[in-house]
Structure formats: C-alpha cells, structure tokens
Amino acid sequence: MSPLNIIILISAYFVVLMLISYFTGKNDSNNDFFKAGKQSPWYLVAFGMIGASLSGVTFISVPGWIEGSQFSYFQVVLGYMVGYFVVAFVLMPIYYKLNVTSIYEYLLERFGSTSHKTGAFFFFISRVLGAAFRLFLVAIVLQQFVFDAWEVPFEITVIISILLIWIYTNKGGIKTIVWTDTLQTLFMIIAVILSIYFINDSLGWSFTDFLASNELKEYSKVFVTDSFLERSHYIKSFIGGMFITICMTGLDQDMMQKNLTCKSLKDAQKNMVSFSIVLVGVTFLFMLLGALLFIYAEKHNIAIPLMDGKPKTDLLFPEIALNSGLGIILAITFMLGLIAAAYSSADSALTSLTTSFCIDFLDVEKKPEAEQKKIRKKTHIAMSVLLVIVIILFKYVLNSNVIDSLLTVAGYTYGPLLGLFAFGIFTKHQIKDKYVWIVALCSVVLVYIIGKIPAENIGGYVIGYELLPLNGLFTFIGLILIRRK
Length: 485
What we know:
Largest sheet: 2 strands, antiparallel
Order of helices and strands: HHHHHHHHHHHHHEEHHHHHHH
Shape: globular
Structural class: mainly alpha
Mean pLDDT: 85
Number of strands: 2
Number of helices: 20
Strand content: under 5%
C-alpha cells in the first residue's frame, strides 16, 4: 500500500470523525464537554470503552510481544476482569453518590485540598505518559511506513496527529468521544478478525487448522508456574493485572469520565461488567494474531523490522500487513484498525486531561460562567502541546516493548492513587492533609529503589507488576502514620 493511499485513507477517516464531531458538538457547553449531559446509553459506552482500553498499544504491541512472552500476558488480562468488577461495585457507587465531574473530587470531600491536588497530579502524570506511549507507537508506524518516504520529520508526524485530535474534540469533548469510540472500536475488532482470516488464508489454513497447528503450540503457553521468582509467574501477573485495572480504570479520570456520562449507577455498572467480559475475548484474539504473525514471518523469511538499527517486534504487524503482498484489503483493514486504535485512546486522554486540569487545578466551576468556556479552550490547547512534547521525547529515550513500558510506569504513578482511595474507602480515619504529598512522593521513591534491585541480590526474585500494589501499600502505611489521633 503506497504512502499516498494511506494518506487518502486517513483523510477519509477523519472526515467521518469530523462529521460526528459536528453533530455532537453543536452545544459546545462545558456540561457536554465534561459530562455529555449524563445521557449516554450504557451499551454505547461499554462498546466504545473496548477501543479506548485496547488502544494502539494492544493493536501493535501485544502481537509484537508474543515472541518474547508467548501468551503469558493473558494471566494479566484475567486479573483485569476481576479488577473491573471491583471498579463497578466498589468505586462507581461512590462517584455516583457524590455526583462528581472529576473523580478526584472524592479526595477533596474525604481528606482535603492537598489530597485532592495530589491525586489529580498523579493522574495527570499517569495519563500524559500513558497517552504519549500509545500515540508514540502509532506515530512510529506512520513514520516508518508513510512519512519517511516523503522525508517528513517525526516531529511533524506527531504534531499533525495531535492537531487532528484537537480539531474533532474541541467542541463536543466527552460527548463526541462516546460516539467516536464506538466507531473506532468497531474498526479495530473488524481489523483483527480480517487480519487473522487473510493471513490464515495465505497459509492455506482455516481458523480451526491454525488453532490445532503445532506452530501455534510454540507460542501459546499461558501460565507461568515454574518458579515464583519469575517476573511473569501467574500469581504475580494476576494480582498485578487486577490492581492495574483498579487503578488505570477505576482511579483514572480518562476511563471513568465515560462511565460518569451514563444516566444512572445501574447503567454504568452494566456497562462495566459487559465491557470486561468482551475485552478478555478481544484481547485473546490479539494474542492469537501475534502468534500467527510470527508463524507467517518464519515461513516466509520476513525479518523483524529495524528501528534506529535495532529489531522492533512492535513493527512486525504493519510490516506484514502493508509490505508482504497479502493484498489491498488487508492493508486497508490494518490502517483503519491502527488509526482507530490510536485515536480511540488519545482523544479521550486529551479530553480527560483537560477536564481534570480545569476542575482539579483551575477550579473552573467556581469561575464566572462567561470565563469557564475560555479556560477550557485554552487548557485543551495546552494539553495538546504537552502531549506533542512528551511523544517526541519518547523517540529518544524509549527502548523496550511499549506495552511492557506502559504497565511498568503504571506501577510508579498509580500507586499513590491506590493508597489514597483505599485508605479513604476502607478506614474512617482523618489525616493531616498537608503532609499527603510527602507520603506519596516517598512511596514512589521507595518503590523505584526496590524496582531497581538486581534479582541476584534478592534470591533470584524478578520484580514485575506487583510494584503497583506494593506502592499502594506503602502509601496506605504512610497515611496511617499521619492520621489524626
């Protein structure tokens, strides 16, 4: 597929998004931007959240991770599902009872202003890095397979990507995103199903043949049970996955903002439960696709694409879809899926960052009504510029698989949120609010030090995603130390 055809496809896709934005953003009010008027159908939110949760990281990086990890990521995914039930029946009732716009308003109600700002700050850092990880991955694919041919610098690729997102979210905000996410999820699921079909067909296999093949067995190990010392041991992975979901969904303004647009708590819970079940199945499809990609590459002697002179397994899917002669339909399917995956998470991240900064840091709801929209618009632009800067920086500092990097960073940035919310929900203690930021910072530093301990110094134990609950535990203990007597 030529670079020109890819650009035409992307342009057509954005025309559709702009049409959706036109119809959903007519009101252009802060209420619609932040809450969608609390009128979103639960099933629409549930379906759209699949795309937002999977994102470009799952679309590209999960298949690319299969060679090194096989299906062990599915252990984490099973933990995700349990975490979603905790979010639905522990956290969501609190948010709906308080009728919050930003979920960190709970911390203001429970502890005070410093706790509120500390929670919002850690979300802000988490979401900026998370959104940048996701968009970075898509930007390097577009760069390698489209813009390098035209000698367009990577920095321009990133600026264009963010600019397009800003344009269609500028007015409607979360109201627009509920609908665009639905379209983007549909494209993403169609892309993975058709990719599996076309690659199997080229190998002369049916889907059943593929599942029964000896080649698949080389990649399909799910449970790591040999030694608890291993980083991917199933208990560590499952528990880590559960806490990742509780934090990256239940304590994350980006994901919860969509749920808070539902008409009632009951609708929001139906959305969360149904979404969690479907997400497990869709993620498993991505892992099957990953195994199929490596099988196909081996049979046709396709080398792992290089980035900056080093093999980059994240680029195998685009290499096969666009350059291996499997046909224009697969190429179009891949590009639509990739674009959908990228922008279904990035657009909601930009909106949630704008919402959180306006509500939690600028107290926009306390400003005169005439100023509120102006503040929101300026903040929306500022968040766009910030994402551009961070994504460009990633090009020069990021070396590992993107999804692994994303989950590792979550262990540092979401831990204080976990500790703060857990202490607020499961205890009745009040704390010395002004010291909360010190507790959170010390917890992150302590966990970072622990994460850097060489395995040979702790009996061969390899630290993995359990850093997140450990971080939350340290924060919880620190809050006990500053509680009011």
